[in-house]
Specification:
The complex is a heterotrimer of chains A (about 500), B (about 650) and C (about 120). By secondary structure, chain B is an all-alpha fold. Helices cover about 75% and strands about 5% of the residues of chain B. Chain B has a two-stranded antiparallel ribbon with strand order 1-2. In chain B, strand 1 and strand 2 form a beta hairpin. The longest helix of chain B has about 50 residues. The radius of gyration of chain B is 28 Å and the shape is globular. The termini of chain B are far apart. Chain C is mostly helical and about 120 residues long. Chain C has one domain: Methane Monooxygenase Hydroxylase, Chain G, domain 1. In chain C, helix 3 runs antiparallel to helix 4. The chains are: A mainly alpha (about 500), B mainly alpha (about 650), C mainly alpha (about 120).
Chain lengths: ~500, ~650, ~120
C-alpha cells in the first residue's frame, strides 16, 4: 500500500491566477448550471427571463474577457495556465469576444422566434451557454486533452440544439445526422491526437512543438498521419470540403436561430483551435501539412460556391456559402506560418464573417412567419417593398459575404489574399478570386429577389413584424459590417495584437 | 491653433450636414415638411457657425501657424512594402477656411431660399437630403489633406450633382442632362486618379503636405510634373466646365434653380479653381502647364461669353456667364495669380448665386417659364427682385466700385503685367469684358424692362419673404464685398493678405507678378471702359430699341452669330465624333458580336459553371452512409498521400 | 522495454482461449435434443405471452443512463479515496464540485419528471 502511494507524483494545486485565466469560461459554465436550476422554477410564460439571465451572464463573461485582454497583455511571461493546458492569451480572448458577441445576438433574437415555433424551452439557453463555454474552452485549449473535451462539450450541446424542434422530422433528422457524423469526426480527431501523442510523448501543444522543433520526435509517417487525421477532425467542425456533407442538411433542418449560432460560433471556435494547433504548435511541419490544407481549401472554395449556385433554399445556400467561406479562411491558415498576415487575415475574416453571417441568419430568423421558416427563395421575393430597412440590411450582408467594399467582408478577403500572395501561394489567391466571382451570382440573386416586384397573383409569404430586439440585432450587425469595412484599422489592430499574443510561442 | 480643437471643428462641420442628410433621407419622408425644412437648413446653419469659428481661429493664429493638418484616423494601409497609406486628414488653412465660409455661408442662404422654392414639391425631403449631402461632400473636398480623401470628395460632389440635376427624374431631359454631367465629370475623375498615381509614384505619399513638401523630387519644368499638372487641369476642367469638357453645364440647368445656384454656380463648378490653387506648388514648377491652363481659361471665357449673347433661356444665359467667369478664374490661377483667382471666386459665388436665385424668383412667379422672349417688364411687378437682379448684373458686368469690378479688374491687371502670350490673353479679356456687359444687361433689360410680352407677366407677383431675404443678403454682398481688396499695390488687400500664407510658400514665383501703379491703373481704365461700353451697348440695343434678334444677328459677322446660336457646335461635334460612332459600335456589338461570339462564350462558361453546381448539389444524397463514405475516402486519401509524400522524400 | 507487457499479452491470450473454448467445448460435449419448448425464449419459467421484439418505454433508457452516470461517479470516487489525504483540501473541493454538478443534474431530471413512470 505504501509503495502504491509513493508512486503518485506530488500534485501542485492550481493557483488563483490559473482560475483567473479561465474566468470567462467559469462564469459562463456556472451560468449554464444555474440556468438549468432557474428553468425549474420559472413559469412557462416567463421564459424570456431566462434569456435575460443568459444575456447578463454573457455580458459578464464579455466584461471579464475585455479585462483579461489587458491583463494578459500585462503579463508577458504567462505561458498558459493550468500547467500549460490552457492558453490565457490575447488570441483566445479575441476569439472569446467574437463567440460571446455571436452568442449574445443569438440569445436576443431567440425568444420571439422560439415562441412562434412553439419551442420556447428553458434548456435552449442552457445549451447555448454550454456550447459557448465549450467553444471558449476550445479557443483557449493548449492541450490535446482539453481540445478534445471542449470539442465534445460544444458538439453534444449542438447535437441537442439542432434537434430542438422535437416534432419536426427535419430537425430530428438533422440532429441524428449531425450526431452520427460528428461522432465519426471525433473519432478521427482522437485517433490523430493519439498518434501525435504517441510520436511526441506529450499532450501539451507547447511541449509537442518543442519536441518536434528540437528533433526529439522524428518526423515520420505516423506523426504525419496523426496530423492529417487531426486536420480531418477540425475540417469537419469548420465544415470544409470534403468533410462538409452534413452542413446543408443540418443547417436546413435545425431551427433557424440555432443555425445562426452554429454556422458562426462553431466555425470560429474550430478555426481558433485549427490555427493554434497548426500555425503555432506545428510550424515545423508546415511543408508537410500545407499541401493538405491547400487541398481542403481549394476543394471548399470550389465545391461550396458551385453547390450554392443551384440551391433554392436560403438556409442551404448559406450553408454552402459557409463552406466556401471556410475555404477562404483556410487560405489565411495555409499562409500563416510564412506570413503573420495569414493569421491576422484569418482572425479578421472570422470576426467579419461572424457579424455578417449572423446578420443574414438574424434576418431570416426574425422575418420567419408563423408557418414554415423563411427558407425558400420564393418567400423573400419583394421583401424590400414591405420591410425596406431589413431588406437593405440583408442586401448589405450579401454584399459583404460576396466581398464588396466598403464592407468588412471585403477586407477579410483582401487580407487573406494578400497574405497568400506574400507567402508565395499565388494560385491559391487566384482560385479565391475566381470562385468569389462565381459567388457574386448567388449572393446577388438574393438581393435581386428581395427588390423584385412581389408576385401579384401568388400568395405572398407572411413576414413577421420587426420587433425591437430583432431590429436591434440587425442594426448592430449592419453597423459592425460597415464600421469594420470603413474603419478597418479598428479590427485589424485588435487582430494583430491577438496574433502577436498567441501561445504557444517557440 | 490646437490640434484637438481643429479635429473637433472638422468633425463637427462634416457631421452636421451629413446628419441633416441622414435625418432627411430616413426620417424626412414621414416626419413632414416642417421637419425637413428645419433639419435641412439648421444643419447647414450650424455648420456655418462652425465655419465662422474655424475662420476666427485662422485669423487669430499667428502668421507662422496659419495652416494646420490634423489626423483623424488611419483609413487604409496599402501594405508595408509600398509604404503608402491613406489617412482621414484635414487641413485648416486660409484657403480651406475661405472655401468653407463660402460653401456654408452661401449654402445656408440657398437652403433657406429652397424652403420657399420647393414649397410645392413632394420630394422636398429627398431634395434637402441631397443638398445636405452635397454640402458634406464639398466640405470633404476642400478640407481634405489626403489625395484619396480629396478624390472621394471630388467624386461625391459629382454624385450629388448627378442626383440633383436629375432631381425631377420624370423628365427625360433632366435624366439625360444628369447622365451627361456625370459622364463628363468621370473623365475628369479618371485624369485626377491617374495624376494621383503619378504623384505617388514620385513622392511615395498621398498626403498633401508631404507632396507639397516634396516638390523638390520633380524636375522643374520637366515632362513628368507637366504631365501631372495637365492631368490635374483636365480634372479641374471637367468639374469647372471648361473647354473642351464644358457642354454639361448648360444642360445641368434642368435641375431645380437652387441647385443651379449652389452647385452649378457658387461652389462645385469652382472646385477646379480650388484644385489648381491647392496644387499651386506643382503648377509653379510647370510653366508650360500653367500657360495651357491660362489659355484654356481665357478661351472658355470668350467662347462662353459669345454663346451667352444668343441664348433665350434665362438659366442658360446665366450658366454660360458662369462658364465664362470661371474661365477668368482659371486664367488667373493658371498664370499664378492665385489670390485674385480666389478673390474672384468669392465675389462670383455671391453675385452668381444671387443671379440664379433672382432668376428662380422670376421663373417661380411666371409658373416655370424660362424663355426670356416671353418675359419683359417684370420690374414693375417684382420691384425687389428687379433691383437685386440689377445689383447682381452690375457686379457681373464689372461696373466700377461694385464687387465684381474689383475682382475682375484685379485679375486682368495681373494678365496685363505679364509679357507675351499673357498680354495677348489680357486683350481677349478686355473683349470678354465688353461681351459680359452686353449679355448681362441684355438679360436684365429683356426680362425686367420693356413691355410685358405675355399675359403671364401681368399675373406675376413678388416672391415671398423666404425667397427674397436670402437674395437680398447676397445683393448687399454683390455690391460691397469687393471693397476688401483694391486692384492697386499698397492699398487695401484683405483677401490677398489673408491668403498669402498659403500662396507665398511656393518654391518659385508665379508667371505673373502683381502689377505696379502704372500698369494697374492703365489696365483698370481699359478694362472699366470696356465694361462700360458693353453695358452702354446693351442699353442702346435692348433698352432703347428692343430689336428683333434677327436684326442684331444680321449686323454681326455671320459666323459669329451662327457660332453663338449653336453654342460653337460642340454638342453636334461630340455627337458626330463620339456619341454616334460609339452608338454604331454598340449596335454592331449588340447585333453581331454579342450573340455570335460573346454570348456563346459567356453562356458557355456560366452554363458549365451552373452545370457543375448541379453536379455538386447531386452529391448531397442525404444519406448518412454516403457522407461517412466520403469522409473516410478523403481521410484515407490524406493519410495515404502524406505517407507516400514522406517516403518519396 | 516491451517485457513489461508480456503478462498483458498472456492475459489477452487466455481471454481468447477461454471465450472461444467454452462454447466450443459445450457444443462438442453437450447432448442435443431440441424440442419446441426448448427453443422458446426463457422468461423465468413462464410461458411467453407476446413476441420479444417490441417497443420499450423510453423510461427504461433514462433509468439505465442515470444508473450509469452514478456508476461512473462511484468509479471515480474509488481512486480519489485512495489518495484523498495527499490531495488535501484541493482534492476535496474538486470532488465536491464534481458531485454537486451531478447532483444538480439529478435535481434537474427529477423535476423534469424523468422518474415518473407514466
Amino acid at each position: 500500500m505504501m509503495a502504491l502511494l509513493a508512486a503518485v507524483p506530488t500534485l501542485t494545486p492550481p493557483t488563483g491566477s490559473d482560475i483567473v485565466g479561465l474566468l470567462p469560461e467559469v462564469i459562463l459554465g456556472g451560468a449554464f448550471v444555474i440556468l438549468l436550476l432557474l428553468d425549474l422554477i420559472t413559469p412557462a410564460s416567463r421564459r424570456t427571463w431566462l434569456a435575460a439571465f443568459s444575456v447578463v451572464a454573457i455580458v459578464a463573461a464579455f466584461g471579464t474577457t475585455v479585462w483579461g485582454w489587458f491583463d494578459a497583455y500585462n503579463n508577458p511571461h504567462v505561458h498558459g495556465v493550468f500547467f500549460g493546458a490552457f492558453a490565457y492569451d490575447r488570441f483566445g480572448l479575441f476569439i472569446n469576444g467574437v463567440l460571446l458577441t455571436s452568442a449574445l445576438l443569438v440569445v436576443v433574437i431567440s425568444p420571439q422566434y422560439l415562441n412562434r415555433r412553439g419551442l420556447h424551452y428553458g434548456e435552449y439557453y442552457s445549451l447555448i451557454l454550454a456550447a459557448t463555454t465549450g467553444m471558449m474552452l476550445l479557443a483557449g485549449a493548449a492541450s490535446l486533452m482539453v481540445i478534445f473535451l471542449s470539442v465534445e462539450l460544444l458538439s453534444i450541446s449542438l447535437y441537442i440544439l439542432s434537434g430542438f424542434s422535437r416534432t419536426d422530422e427535419r430537425s430530428q433528422e438533422a440532429a441524428l445526422k449531425y450526431l452520427l457524423l460528428g461522432g465519426f469526426a471525433s473519432a478521427f480527431l482522437l485517433y490523430g491526437m493519439a498518434l501525435v501523442y504517441g510520436e511526441t510523448g506529450h499532450t501539451q501543444l507547447e511541449q509537442i512543438a518543442i519536441a518536434i522543433h528540437s528533433g526529439i520526435a522524428t518526423v515520420d509517417p505516423l506523426l504525419l498521419i496523426g496530423v492529417v487525421l487531426m486536420l480531418v477532425g477540425f475540417a469537419f467542425k469548420v465544415s470544409a470540403a470534403p468533410f462538409h456533407m452534413w452542413t446543408p442538411d443540418v443547417y436546413q433542418g435545425a431551427p433557424t436561430s440555432v443555425t445562426a449560432f452554429m454556422s458562426v460560433a462553431t466555425k470560429v471556435a474550430a478555426f481558433a483551435a485549427l490555427i493554434r494547433v497548426f500555425s503555432f504548435a506545428f510550424p515545423d511541419l508546415y511543408p508537410q501539412w500545407q499541401t493538405a490544407v491547400v487541398f481542403v481549401c481549394i476543394l471548399s472554395m470550389v465545391w461550396g460556391n458551385l453547390a450554392a449556385l443551384s440551391q433554392t433554399s436560403l438556409k442551404r445556400m448559406l450553408a454552402y456559402s459557409g463552406i466556401a467561406q471556410a475555404g477562404y479562411i483556410l487560405i489565411g491558415v495555409a499562409s500563416s506560418p510564412h506570413d503573420a498576415g495569414g493569421t491576422i487575415g484569418a482572425l479578421f475574416y472570422l470576426a467579419a464573417y461572424s457579424l455578417t453571417n449572423l446578420g443574414a441568419f438574424a434576418v431570416i430568423t426574425i422575418m420567419s412567419g408563423r408557418g414554415e421558416d423563411l427558407d425558400r427563395y420564393a418567400s423573400i421575393r419583394g421583401l424590400a417593398h414591405r420591410r425596406p430597412y431589413v431588406a437593405a440590411a440583408m442586401a448589405l450582408f450579401m454584399l459583404s459575404l460576396a466581398g464588396f467594399p466598403p464592407t468588412a467582408g471585403f477586407f477579410g478577403k483582401f487580407l487573406v489574399f494578400s497574405a497568400a500572395i506574400k507567402s508565395g501561394l499565388m494560385p491559391l489567391a487566384l482560385w479565391g478570386i475566381a470562385t468569389s466571382a462565381v459567388s457574386i451570382f448567388y449572393y446577388l440573386r438574393v438581393v435581386l429577389l428581395m427588390y423584385a416586384k412581389p408576385d401579384a397573383d401568388a400568395k405572398s409569404y407572411e413576414w413577421s413584424k420587426t420587433t425591437v430586439s430583432g431590429g436591434a440585432v440587425v442594426a448592430f450587425t449592419t453597423a459592425g459590417t460597415l464600421v469594420f469595412g470603413v474603419f478597418v484599422t479598428l479590427l485589424y489592430t485588435v487582430a494583430t495584437a491577438a496574433q502577436q499574443g498567441a501561445l504557444p510561442r517557440l | 491653433m490646437r490640434v484637438d480643437t481643429v479635429q473637433v471643428l472638422c468633425g463637427l462641420i462634416l457631421l452636421l450636414p451629413l446628419a441633416g442628410c441622414v435625418l432627411n433621407g430616413l426620417v424626412g419622408p414621414r416626419a413632414g415638411r416642417k421637419f425637413v425644412n428645419l433639419a435641412g437648413t439648421l444643419s447647414i446653419l450650424a455648420s456655418f457657425i462652425v465655419a465662422c469659428v474655424m475662420f476666427g481661429h485662422v485669423i487669430a493664429a499667428d502668421a507662422a501657424h496659419k495652416a494646420i493638418t490634423v489626423h483623424m484616423w488611419q483609413w487604409l494601409d496599402l501594405g508595408t512594402g509600398a509604404n503608402l497609406s491613406a489617412g482621414v486628414d484635414f487641413t485648416l488653412d486660409p484657403l480651406s477656411a475661405l472655401m468653407v465660409m463660402v460653401i456654408t455661408g452661401v449654402g445656408f442662404l440657398i437652403h433657406v431660399y429652397s424652403v420657399g422654392y420647393m414649397k410645392h414639391d413632394d420630394g422636398v425631403a429627398r431634395f434637402f437630403a441631397y443638398m445636405n449631402f452635397f454640402i458634406f461632400s464639398m466640405l470633404l473636398l476642400v478640407l481634405a489633406a489626403d489625395l484619396v480623401i480629396l478624390i472621394v470628395g471630388w467624386a461625391l460632389v459629382a454624385l450629388s450633382s448627378y442626383l440633383l440635376i436629375g432631381f425631377w427624374y420624370q423628365r427625360p431631359s433632366a435624366v439625360l442632362a444628369a447622365r451627361k454631367a456625370f459622364i463628363t465629370q468621370v473623365i475628369g475623375d479618371v485624369a485626377l486618379v491617374v495624376a494621383a498615381f503619378m504623384i505617388a509614384g514620385k513622392v511615395n505619399s498621398l498626403s498633401l503636405p508631404t507632396i507639397f513638401g516634396g516638390v523638390g523630387a520633380f524636375d522643374k519644368g520637366g515632362a513628368y510634373v507637366t504631365g501631372i499638372c495637365i492631368l490635374l487641369a483636365i480634372g479641374a476642367f471637367a468639374k469647372s466646365a471648361q473647354f473642351p469638357l464644358h457642354t454639361w453645364l448648360p444642360d445641368a440647368m434642368e435641375g431645380p434653380t437652387p441647385v443651379s445656384a449652389l452647385i452649378h454656380a457658387a461652389t462645385m463648378v469652382t472646385a477646379g479653381v480650388y484644385l489648381i490653387a491647392r496644387f499651386h506648388p506643382l503648377f509653379d514648377i510647370a510653366p508650360t502647364a500653367q500657360l495651357i491652363v491660362a489659355c484654356v481659361g481665357m478661351g472658355t471665357a470668350l467662347m462662353a461669353a459669345i454663346t451667352a449673347l444668343s441664348q433665350i433661356d434665362i438659366k442658360r444665359v446665366i450658366a454660360y456667364s458662369t462658364m465664362s467667369q470661371i474661365g477668368l478664374m482659371i486664367f488667373a490661377v493658371g498664370m499664378g495669380a492665385y489670390s485674385v483667382g480666389m478673390f474672384h471666386f468669392t465675389t462670383h459665388a455671391i453675385f452668381k448665386a444671387l443671379l440664379f436665385l433672382a432668376a428662380g424668383n422670376v421663373i417661380h412667379a411666371l409658373g416655370d417659364e424660362q424663355d426670356i422672349r416671353l418675359m419683359g417688364g417684370l420690374a414693375g411687378k417684382m420691384k425687389w427682385t428687379a433691383a437685386i437682379f440689377a445689383a447682381g448684373s452690375v457686379s457681373l458686368a464689372g461696373f466700377p466700385l461694385v464687387s465684381g469690378w474689383f475682382s475682375k479688374e484685379a485679375l486682368l491687371g495681373f494678365g496685363a503685367n505679364g509679357g507675351g502670350l499673357l498680354l495677348a490673353l489680357y486683350f481677349v479679356g478686355v473683349a470678354v469684358n465688353i461681351l459680359t456687359g452686353l449679355y448681362a444687361f441684355r438679360l436684365y433689360f429683356t426680362v425686367f424692362q420693356g413691355k410685358p410680352q405675355t399675359a403671364r407677366v401681368f399675373a406675376a407677383k413678388e416672391a415671398p419673404m423666404v425667397m427674397l431675404a436670402p437674395v437680398a443678403v447676397l445683393g448687399v454682398g454683390a455690391l460691397f464685398f469687393g471693397w476688401i481688396e483694391w486692384p492697386f499695390p499698397g492699398l487695401w488687400h484683405l483677401m490677398s493678405d489673408f491668403l498669402s500664407p498659403v500662396f507665398h510658400t511656393a518654391a518659385s514665383g508665379p508667371l505673373a507678378q502683381e502689377p505696379g501703379w502704372t500698369v494697374a491703373s492703365l489696365a483698370l481704365v481699359v478694362g472699366t471702359l470696356a465694361s462700360l461700353i458693353g453695358i452702354g451697348g446693351a442699353f442702346r440695343l435692348w433698352y432703347q430699341h428692343r430689336p428683333d434678334a434677327a436684326v442684331v444677328a444680321d449686323r454681326l459677322p455671320r459666323l459669329v452669330s451662327l457660332l453663338s446660336l449653336h453654342k460653337f457646335y460642340f454638342d453636334e461635334m461630340y455627337d458626330a465624333l463620339l456619341v454616334r460612332p460609339l452608338c454604331a459600335l454598340a449596335r454592331v456589338m449588340r447585333k453581331t458580336v454579342e450573340p455570335g461570339g460573346m454570348d456563346r462564350w459567356v453562356r458557355g462558361t456560366s452554363g458549365s459553371v451552373s452545370e457543375m453546381g448541379f453536379i455538386a448539389r447531386d452529391t448531397e444524397t442525404g444519406l448518412i452512409r454516403d457522407y461517412a463514405v466520403y469522409m473516410v475516402a478523403a481521410a484515407v486519401l490524406g493519410v495515404v498521400a502524406s505517407a507516400l509524400l514522406w517516403f518519396v522524400r | 522495454m516491451l517485457d513489461a507487457y508480456i503478462p498483458i499479452l498472456a492475459f489477452f491470450g487466455i481471454c481468447v482461449v477461454f471465450a472461444a473454448g467454452v462454447p466450443l467445448l459445450s457444443a462438442w460435449l453437450g447432448p442435443r435434443k431440441p424440442s419446441p419448448e426448448k427453443s422458446m425464449p426463457y422468461e423465468s419459467g413462464v410461458v411467453p405471452q407476446i413476441g420479444a421484439r417490441q417497443r420499450f418505454s423510453v423510461s427504461f433508457y433514462v433509468t439505465a443512463m442515470l444508473f450509469i452516470i452514478f456508476d461512473v461517479e462511484s468509479i471515480f470516487l474509488f481512486p480519489w479515496a485512495t489518495i484523498v489525504r495527499q490531495l488535501k483540501i484541493f482534492g476535496f473541493v474538486e470532488m465536491v464540485v464534481f458531485i454537486a454538478t451531478l447532483f444538480i443534474g439529478l435535481v434537474y431530471v427529477w423535476r423534469k419528471g424523468a422518474f415518473r413512470w407514466e
